Amino acid sequence: MNTKGLTTLAAAVAALTLSTAAFADDDGKGFYLGGGVGEFQLDIDDFDDVEATVDDYESDDTAWKAFAGYRQNKYLGFELAYVNFGSPEDEVLPDTFVEVETEGFAPYIVGTLPFAAFELFAKAGYLVYDTEARVTTPLGSTVAEDSGDDFTWTAGVGLTLFDTFNLRLEYEMFDIEEVDDANALWLTGAFRF
What we know:
A hairpin with a 2-residue loop joins strand 4 and strand 5 (96-115). This protein has one helix spanning 3-25, and strands spanning 30-46, 55-71, 76-84, 89-93, 96-115, 118-137, 140-161, 165-174, 181-192. An 8-stranded antiparallel beta barrel has the order 1-2-3-5-6-7-8-9. The chain has 1 helix and 9 strands, in the order αβββββββββ. The protein is mainly β. 12% of the residues lie in helices and 68% in strands. The relative contact order is 0.19. The two termini are 44 Å apart. The model is unreliable at 12-25 and 49-53 (pLDDT under 50).
């Protein structure tokens, strides 16, 4: 190998070593802001607080969220999100429709396992929410409102692009007492500062 080839090889090895060292020294600490869209799925067997008995409600709608967080290091972080689950609607009986609107805030603890640009993560938190359920029949509408706070957890995968943008696919479950199943599949993005 000639001198020019050795110089090029030495420069490439030095650049790779420096970039690896820089990545290893990156503690991941800092703030981030982001948002996402997803699909919210809601299943309810029985509405106890409305005049009409409704069975087998199952619907989904487009949901969105905005969030801010702080990473203590590349393994541990804290996050606060505003979530809006849209207005899932279902015809539960002939000419009887149920629409459920839910929104709220959720603080989380976030654990991350990084693999270079990829990562696995899990979040645990509490959703503090307001819900409005509307039952509409040919005779009129009945509205029931509720507020509460329930446990939520998330698992997913992420990819960091351009050193500052984090793209994530998240599956989230909500342990809401009054419903049989509430979950969301999210695609989110966040800028890390």
